[in-house]
Every structure is written in structure tokens, then in C-alpha cells.
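Pasting as-is:
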Amino acid sequence: MHETKRRHLTVLRTELIAPRMQRITLGGADLEGFTSLAPGDHVKAFFPDPTVGEIVTPVVVDGRPQLPTGPGEVIARDYTPAAFRPIGEHGPELDLDFVLHADGSHAGPAASWAAQAKPGDPLIIGGPRGSRVPPSDIRRAILIADESALPAVTRWLDLLGEAEVIGLFSALEPGTSQYLSGYEASAREFRWFSGEDRNTRIAETLAGLAITESTLVFLAGEAGSLIPLRRHLRRELGLPKEQVDAHGYWKQGEANLDHHAPLDPSDPD
């Protein structure tokens, strides 16, 4: 577990690092002591409410967070820390990567903020509350992700080192593959899928892979597309839950999905 702290940060710089992938680098004295040790870590980012023009956060009453009674709405989303540098050009730096919508008019509040963010803009984060560090002796892994989970993928690749890795990645834009530029290695095979049938082709590819008891499978992204993959792994192949690390980061048609909830409510672990 880590120290629970609300950190008031500012945007240092922004960069489009791949099609529809915007990196926001944050800084500030409040980043002192920030800790993130595992690929599954996340911070809760609080964004400005456009109706009041400022960030609204929960208030703590008797040790419990509660919605404030004043004007404005709490707008918060969870993000994987893409990278943290304790010593940067102007102090500690934290990178958060955002998926931008192809049509900005349909973007949610977080993507809209990221698309317009500029140096000096404020952002408040909380967490990570803790880190669930995977075993250090993983020798083979299959990583399945869409754009929203690519920051977690890079964290996994940093952790896995020289282990054999097969990556099955769904992306609306084929050029998104440049996000993992520099992470290629002889023991790593990355396969990218675009087009409307990309989820079907990922499922077919996964079904053709040999998965042994020593293979870790990580899958994260749009919850609905992951349910059949998890069922294949857990029910058809009979893999134990310790071997299948599945997370719905978002869900089509649902705002602010609780990614702590079971991926498949009809078949929880």
C-alpha cells in the first residue's frame, strides 16, 4: 500500500506520440514521494468541470470521501501511470497517456481535456493506493490490449524483460503500432489488428496459440470485447484465475466504467 495523497499538478508539456495517443507530462512539488510499482497501478485524475471552470473533488468526512454540496460536478477517470521520473528537467515528472477520439465532438471530458491541454493547466490526481506486483519469474506472457491499455502494456514489457511475449493489439488506426516503437525484441512478437473485425481476428488468433501452465495472459481494454476471450481462457481451457489477468478499462455506451467490477458479471471469479 502507498500513501494516500491528493496531488495538485500542472501540465509541463504535451505530445502526440502515436495516432490518437496524446501524452500529457505533469509536474509539481506534490509528485515528491509518488510510487507506482506494478503494471496494474492506476491513478484517479480529476478534470475541470466546464460549467464552473475549475476542478471539483470529493470532500473527506469522517475518513470517507463524499460528493461536495457546492456547484460543479466531480469528473474523474482512472489512468495507468505510463512513466514516472523522480528527477526530470524541472523536478519529478509523470506521464499519462490519453486516447483521443477520431471525432472530437464525441469525446468525453477526459479526452476533450487532453486534446486541448497546454503547459500550465492544472490537474489533480490521487493514488495509486497500492501496487500488486506480479511474480518476477514469468517466462512467457500473452498481452491483449486496445489503445486504452497500451500504457499498461509498456509497464508489463518493462517488467517482463527477456521473457517471451506475444502481443495481440487492437487499434482503430494502424499507425498506433508506433506507440511500442523501441519495445521490440527477439523474444517478442507484436501483432496489430485494425478494421471492424479486429476483435474477431484477435479471438481467432488467441484460439490458435499454445497456452501452457507457465503462460501468463493479460487482457485489458473495452469490456465487452474481452468477455469471450476470458471465457475461452477460463472455461474452455480451464486456466486458473491466477493465470488470467483481465480488466475492462471502458465499456461501449457506458460512461466511467468501474474497472474494479467483474469483467463478466454473469461469470465472476
